[in-house]
């Protein structure tokens, strides 16, 4: 499911790194404090990272 609008935000990340391993476009980068940062130019909003996050830290916003 690829959504045409909206974006994904990071809130409450516990730094497990699962999201970075599932992203097919390498749109999730690691910040200095080891949290994911989304490159919105690469993200196609496939939602794999949102679905795999055990802490519900990735949220789709319209």
TrEMBL record:
Instruction: Give the domain of life.
Output: Archaea
Ranges in a coiled coil: none
Q: Where is the 4Fe-4S ferredoxin-type domain?
A: 4-33, 34-62
One Pfam family hit: Fer4_9
Q: What is this protein called?
A: 4Fe-4S ferredoxin-type domain-containing protein
């Amino acid at each position: 499911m690829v959504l045409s609008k909206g974006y994904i935000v990071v809130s409450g990340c516990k730094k497990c790194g699962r999201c970075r391993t599932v992203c097919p476009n390498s749109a999730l980068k690691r910040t200095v404090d080891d949290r994911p940062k989304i490159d919105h130019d690469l993200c196609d909003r496939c939602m794999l990272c949102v679905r795999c996050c055990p802490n519900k830290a990735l949220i789709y916003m319209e």
